[in-house]
Write a structure and sequence with these properties.
Elements (H helix, E strand, L loop, with lengths): L3 E8 L3 H12 L4 E5 L5 H5 L2 H18 L14 H11 L6 H9 L3 E4 L1 E6 L2 E5 L5 E12 L3 E3 L15 H5 L7 E5 L3 H12 L3 E6 L9 H13 L3 E4 L3 E7 L2 E6 L4 E4 L1 E4 L3 E3 L31 E3 L10 H19 L16 H4 L2 E4 L4 E6 L2 H6 L4 E7 L4 H6 L6 E7 L4 E9 L6 H9 L4 H4 L12 H9 L3
Parallel strand pairs: 1-2, 1-6, 2-3, 6-16, 8-9, 8-14, 9-10
Antiparallel strand pairs: 4-5, 5-6, 7-15, 11-12, 12-13, 17-18, 18-21, 19-20, 20-21
Helix pairs in contact: 1-9, 3-4, 3-7
Bound molecules: flavin-adenine dinucleotide and nicotinamide-adenine-dinucleotide.
Flavin-adenine dinucleotide (FAD) binds next to helix 1, strand 2, helix 2, helix 3 and strand 4.
Length: about 475
């Protein structure tokens, strides 16, 4: 036993854990971080970065092919091997020396191994060689252990060695045929990526494509995937899976069999809490960790949970936003300073509920923030929905010949502020932050008329949306 004390112990060195530790050290406290795999977490090696690298080259090629003058310069096809090599670079070749060095430079102590809470403010770390180190926290323990892929209980699935997002993101070769179970964000992006790389892709989307987004988003992504040769089977449900020799056979509810070389399961996530000692704090192992506005686990005053593991929003940027709030509130509570946990306060993660931005890097891209029209109505708001054809904007016509896209703004009619925006179209990702600022700032519609978009940019859609809404 080797007792060591820190002000704060963070379990999990993904993007969220790293940012919590950095924030508390900047606030004058000491911090240790516990990591059982790679410093940088899912995002750096198997999620955000490598998947976007898999998507980017095909997106650039599509863009240039839609631009007369430039398209003539393209004489060959995509080189999948070169894309995979670039992906390897973005995954740092699955080595974390760079990020571990950053932790050291930030004054954060790294303990490698599996962390488990064993008593109040006590974390045991079991290393790869089974040695156990006991850490104690003077002020707080923060769980930032993230999530893993959810696998459904389908007969034959586990024996068929399915891909999860990890195997897809780190694929060493491109399968000739890929079947994807699911229709959410991972399924949409992976279908786009692997069809771009040359796989014959079949998407078995029981609940549709991007069902949580505005309906036009899923419709446009479905149409584009089909145009790219992807077989999108809306409503298709898998009942059994079998791997015979090399091929995987998926049986659907109507008895039809879909054959592929690999099957990717992308139906959501489970929290990494099964072996974390949650029973010692009266929680059930394997459950999501429910937290209050300051990301503190309800009823346990020294325990916090940030990032994917608290299920508020499963996105890196939002988890890092939570990390800044958690780090700062721990420092405030440790020093007896005032806690600002009211809406939009320094220590409250208010944006998690009102203004979460997300870009889905499909073709076309889907960029959204805040509420969809349906979600706003469910929340009891009186809303007005304003739609505009993004392809009709001068900047979009210049951007690409035959540019097709759509924009929607959802306005809370009682407060006359925007509560949701969705853009669908090529390269709409960079349009999103203006919408986020308008929603977080609760900028009145009447004032937005004074925010003039430059001509001729795609951002002129903002003016067109306001014109469609009307000026009294
Ligand atoms: C395929 C895919 C693509 C994605 N793309 C995007 C994107 O483009 N943009 C975006 O914003 N989000 C994206 N996400 C979501 C994003 O990856 C997560 O929101 C983010 O990684 C969450 O960060 P985290 O720090 O909470 O958890 P993680 O990144 O999962 O990190 C948790 C860390 O904790 C460690 N750990 C777990 N348990 C223990 C333990 N008991 N002891 C010690 N260490 C432990 C793990 O090894 C891991 O390193 C994507 C997700 C997937 C699956
Ligand atoms: N660009 C990005 O921001 C990005 C990219 C990838 C992943 N992510 C994040 O990662 C998280 C996980 O993504 P995901 O796609 O796994 O989850 P998801 O929640 O986005 O989608 C899962 C989909 O699977 C469907 N589903 C659920 N159970 C099913 C079943 N038994 N059979 C068939 N379909 C079923 C659901 O209806 C849903 O549409 C998301 O929350 C997302 O925010 C973000």
């Amino acid at each position: 036993m080797n007792p060591m004390s820190y002000d704060v112990i963070v379990i999990g060195a993904g993007p969220v854990g790293e940012n919590v530790a950095d924030r508390v050290v900047r606030g004058g406290l000491t911090a240790a971080i516990v990591e059982r795999e790679l410093v940088g977490g899912e995002c750096s090696y198997w999620a955000c970065m490598p998947t976007k690298a898999l998507l980017r080259s095909a997106a650039a090629l599509r863009a240039v092919r839609n631009l007369p003058g430039a398209s003539q310069a393209v004489t060959g096809d995509l080189d999948p091997a070169a894309v995979l090599r670039r992906r390897d670079d973005f995954a740092s070749h699955w080595k974390d020396d760079g990020q571990a060095a950053w932790l050291a430079s930030a004054g954060i102590t790294l303990h490698r191994g599996h962390g488990r809470i064993t008593a109040d403010r006590v974390v045991e770390v079991t290393g790869a060689d089974e040695t156990v180190t006991t850490l104690t926290a003077r002020h707080a323990v923060v769980v930032a252990t993230g999530t893993a892929a959810l696998l459904p209980d389908l007969p034959g699935l586990r024996e068929a060695a399915p891909w999860t997002s990890r195997e897809a993101a780190a694929a060493a070769t491109v399968p000739a045929r890929l079947a994807i179970i699911g229709g959410g964000v991972v399924a949409g992006e992976m279908a786009t990526a692997f069809s771009g790389l040359g796989s014959a892709v079949t998407v078995l989307a029981r609940d549709g494509i991007l069902p949580a987004a505005e309906p036009f988003a899923g419709e446009r992504v479905t149409a584009a995937l089909r145009e790219a040769g992807v077989s999108v089977r809306l409503g298709a449900e898998v009942t059994a899976v079998r791997r015979d020799g090399g091929a995987v056979r998926l049986t659907l509810t109507d008895g039809e069999v879909v054959e592929a070389d690999e099957v990717l399961v992308a139906i959501g996530r489970v929290p990494n809490t099964a072996d974390l000692g949650l029973e010692t704090v009266g929680r059930t192992p394997g459950d999501w960790l429910e937290v209050d506005e300051t990301l503190r686990v309800r009823g346990v005053d020294w325990l916090y949970a940030a990032g994917d593991v608290n299920r508020r929003v499963l996105l890196t940027h939002q988890g890092k936003y939570q990390a800044r709030a958690v780090g700062d509130v721990i420092v405030a509570r440790a020093g007896g300073a005032e806690v600002e946990d009211g809406p939009w306060g320094k220590h409250a993660a208010t944006a998690d509920e009102r203004a979460v931005p997300q870009v889905v890097f499909t073709e076309p891209e889907v960029a959204s923030v805040g509420l969809t029209a349906a979600a706003a109505e469910r929340a009891g708001l009186t809303v007005r929905v304003v739609d505009y054809d993004l392809g009709a904007v001068a900047g979009a016509k210049l951007h690409a010949d035959g540019y097709q896209g759509h924009a929607r703004m959802v306005v809370d009619e009682q407060r006359r502020v925007i509560v949701g925006v969705t853009f669908v179209g090529p390269d709409v990702a960079e349009l999103l932050h203006a919408a986020t600022v308008a929603i977080v700032g609760e900028v009145p519609i009447d004032r937005l008329w004074h925010a003039v978009p430059a001509y001729p940019t795609v951002s002129e859609v903002w003016l067109r949306l306001l014109e469609a809404y009307g000026r009294p």
